[in-house]
Amino acid sequence: MILAKEMVRHRWASFLGTFAALAVGVAVISGSLALWASAQPRTPKPLAAAEVLIASPRYDPPDGGFPTYRPWSPEEVDELVGRASRTPGVAAAIPDRAFYVQRLVDGKPAGNARDAVHSGRGWASAGLSPYGLVKGNAPDRPGEVVVDAALGVPVGGQLPVLTAAGPATWTVTGAIDGPGLYVDDATARSLAGGVTVIGLRLAPGADAERVADGLGLGALGEPLTGTERSAAEPARDTRTRWIGAQLIIATVLVGGFVAVFVVASTCAFSASQRRREIGLLRAIGATPGQVRRLLLAEVLLVALGAGVLGAVGGALLAPLLEGPFVAVGLEPTGFQVGLSWWAMGVSLAAGLVVAALGVWLSARRTSRVPALDALREAAVEKRPMTPSRWIVGGLGVVVGGGLAALLPGSTAEQKPTIVLCSAMVLLVAAALLAPAVVVPLVRLVTWPFRRGATGMLVREGTSVAARRVASTAAPVLAAVGFAVLLVGTFQTANEAVGIEDTAKIPESAVAAPSGAPGLSEAAVQAQRGRSELSSTVYLASGEPIRATGSADVSGLAAAPSLGWRVGESVPLRFVDGTVQSVTVTQVSDDVFIDTVVLPRALVRAHDPTALTEVVYLSGAFAPTAGAEELTARAYVERRAAVEGDLIDLFLAVLLGISVGYTGLAVANTLLMATYGRRQEFTTLHRTGATTGQTLRVVVVEALVAVGAGTLLGLAVAVPALFEARAGLAEEIGADVTLVMPWGTLAAVVGVCGALAVAASTLPFLRRGGLPLLRRGDLSAGARTMAG
């Protein structure tokens, strides 16, 4: 361990990249775990004061999807409220009725549209929340409302609002110290759908667990106490948290994997520069096992310091992501990140594991360095390509080429997937074969400049240092290839989907929601055109299926996947909890899978909360609150942007991590290489080269290596993009424009180039000139041994 500490102290420059990679990796893991720990389901704030919650019967999908709670019928609600009220220890049993309402400011919906879906409640539900009336009185008749005191609306003032029925104006009777709008219970009953939660307020001293056990609900519901009450969280919040969790998991996996890659490549390049040093250790009696343990101890010492810095830094920076996560829909409103000690501990341990994995392979190879390598003087790399690189890289070329050979016989739907898989395999193969490919490419690129001193030195320097050049170019190759391929494929696919979806809309214009989650009934009735009302119905098993209300049907039209026959009577439970048998009048392939189409009036009668997504206009647009006119193309693009924004965020995070680590790998390789080339620079200096001339050679070498990696990455990604575009065009039967992500490409190459130049020039700037070889300059290991 003493020797390892001395090695780290004397060779600190060669460990900078490892330190940075591990610190960033641990910070990513620490911050991600803190976000994940804070993103677990919580008891909804509007129900937080209820010691016991009764949840309606739950349906768990057989495929493991999100559980759903089917609403009780009005009769079941009355029965449960009566039963709970008679249970010893219960002071009050209150059904929670929530509905959509949004404040109108200057005739336009204000606030968060997602939160507005459940922001309205009956006044009785206020008794389930931790909020209290701070001024005024409770609403006791239709048209009255208690508002959030933060809105600043005075008691007696008028509040314009938008509900699923349409615009209305309510009189403010009071203010409450929390979010939401509370109306009288009769109004809430008419605006809300069915009840899925009943909250119980207990008498002083009553035990929640004992009360829950005494309810005797049977199949009618499930009592929830303590942390179990988080199951009452709205389904939309549960789905939002799940999306955020996927991003966090992907971030941890990508960050950990790339950190291992960077540490491994850094250690491998460092080992190739330390062959004489390791040979000297072998010459004085060090065994391969001792060499492996030395290399492992070095990296673990670096990892410990980097891990502590990263673990603390990640935990402290994680709260900065609260707002962005809520803004893009990855977490519900009210999301807060707390300090998590276990997240810091786990991330620190993960950093040590990543370091050990990264150094393991290079340590095994380095430990077999012969003692005679201590006598080497030449720095020429005799074998930049190892047998394993040839085998795995060649296998990648065969597999990638084989997948590409399948394209002529594949269907239009299969082509984009085959192209993507083939290109990714070929990118990995190209990165592995980089030492054999980069040098000829660099010589070809620099051929016009071979007569100049700088061009000649760059050409000849790359010829004898293929590993160094490949270690710089390979990460750039992978980053450029993956970035261009993923972003280009996604953007081109978006273009194709937009063309296809627009072609399905015969109308030239639509009425779409503006600042609201959907169109109110009043907005729909004001337009001339066709529309569908989206809702949900429940089968006898409790399984929810999508229901669409349409004016074009008089009975029930079902998808074939439901297995129903024409003339069959099917009992359906609607959103208000009412069960009604409906006769199947049509089974059609035109109906989406697991969907039913019902008369619009029937759906509206049983689902007062339903909102319409769009009206396809057949006449002039009638301006109404919460609606705007869009062209068909603009509507399709906006609808795609809802999902596209999340995918863009996923891509940005994944590519940001990948490009960041790529920059670290490039910078560390060049930093170590520059420090390791002191004797070469000293020779140049003694033959008459100035510091500026030597610096120019180093900078050009770095940029040429980055350029070579960029060209190789584009050579794989661009043809794949053209093939993907052709497959998409064939699939939709229309011409699709290839979208080349120039901005992404410029950002990736710019970051890599800037870091490459900075890392190449840092040793010069630090020393105020050439990093010259000092007299008696020995390796750290030799000095330590001599001491």
TrEMBL record:
GO terms for cellular component: plasma membrane. The chain crosses the membrane at residues 12-37, 247-272, 293-321, 341-361, 390-411, 417-442, 469-490, 649-676, 697-722, 742-765. It is a multi-pass membrane protein. The keyword Phosphoprotein does not apply. It comes from the Bacteria. It is found in: Cell membrane. This is ABC transporter permease. The lineage of its organism: Bacteria, Bacillati, Actinomycetota, Actinomycetes, Micromonosporales.
